[in-house]
């Protein structure tokens, strides 16, 4: 089929230009002057759509993916993760170097972004690394009915926030982002898991998806990057696609800036 018959124009992806720390920081900068949360998700997937290998996402990553993972944490005010991901991926607090801390101070941010754990029950073991290997206490975003007991059980370990709306047994995503905005944490980064990403999508709260496509096929029954009982179709705009010598693709899609509620 000729190009004309195809009815579209295809372009060749070129290697990333100017992929220095400063250049990448500009390419991944959050919108300016946010008054509501801008929710960015960062995930990795195989060529055949697997979000994990061996039950974890780390096996799909490469050097470039790890560099962008660190950069996105540096740029964020808060890193939001589901409790299941905290346990499975053995999460600790964010670890940043001197240069990253200085850049955050220049932007008016705290030196280290807190981890915010989303959990309906707030049943979190005290020996999790997110409590023991961190410079700052994590946030626990939980339901109304779990919050009172959790504040006692996690006293000195975490700041517990009631993020329910109509249902006191559930974490409401709109209440959750409103809580973060109220804390001045508007540059939100979520790293998993699939259920949490599905929640953001279903609630139309996902502003941006940074998806690394790893040059592997996995097969098996691995999960996708998102999992939700509710299907929602939201059009995103391509911002950029980067590549490297290992064959990874680093894609960034977001909603149009004028569509974001301020």
From TrEMBL:
A matching Pfam family: RibD_C
Keywords, ordered alphabetically: NADP, Oxidoreductase
Sequence ranges assigned to domain Bacterial bifunctional deaminase-reductase C-terminal in this UniProt record: 38-249
InterPro entries: DHFR-like_dom_sf, RibDG_C, Riboflavin_Biosynth_HTPR
Gene Ontology terms: biological process: riboflavin biosynthetic process
Sequence intervals crossing the membrane: none
Domain of life of the organism encoding this protein: Bacteria
Protein name: Riboflavin biosynthesis pyrimidine reductase
Lineage: Bacteria, Bacillati, Actinomycetota, Actinomycetes, Mycobacteriales
């Amino acid at each position: 089929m000729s190009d004309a018959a195809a009815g579209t124009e295809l372009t060749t992806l070129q290697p990333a230009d100017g992929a220095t720390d400063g250049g990448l920081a500009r390419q991944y900068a959050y919108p300016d002057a946010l008054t509501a949360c801008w929710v960015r998700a960062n995930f990795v997937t195989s060529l055949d759509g697997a979000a994990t290998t061996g039950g974890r996402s780390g096996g799909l990553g490469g050097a470039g993916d790890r560099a962008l993972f660190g950069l996105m944490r540096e740029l964020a005010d808060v890193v939001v993760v589901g409790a299941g991901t905290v346990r499975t991926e053995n999460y600790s607090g964010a670890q940043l170097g001197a240069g990253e801390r200085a850049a955050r101070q220049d932007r008016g941010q705290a030196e280290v972004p807190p981890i915010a754990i989303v959990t309906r029950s707030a049943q979190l073991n005290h020996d999790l690394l997110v409590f023991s290997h961190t410079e700052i206490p994590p946030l626990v975003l939980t339901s109304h009915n779990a919050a009172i007991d959790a504040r006692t059980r996690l006293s000195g370990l975490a700041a517990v926030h009631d993020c329910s709306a109509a249902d006191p047994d559930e974490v409401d995503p709109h209440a959750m982002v409103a809580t973060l905005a109220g804390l001045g944490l508007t540059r939100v980064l979520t790293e998993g898991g699939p259920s949490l990403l599905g929640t953001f999508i279903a609630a139309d709260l996902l502003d941006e998806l940074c998806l690394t496509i790893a040059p592997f096929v996995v097969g098996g029954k691995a999960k996708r990057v998102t999992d939700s009982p509710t299907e929602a179709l939201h059009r995103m705009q391509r911002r950029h696609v980067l590549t490297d010598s290992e064959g990874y693709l680093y894609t960034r899609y977001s909603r149009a800036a004028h569509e974001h509620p301020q």
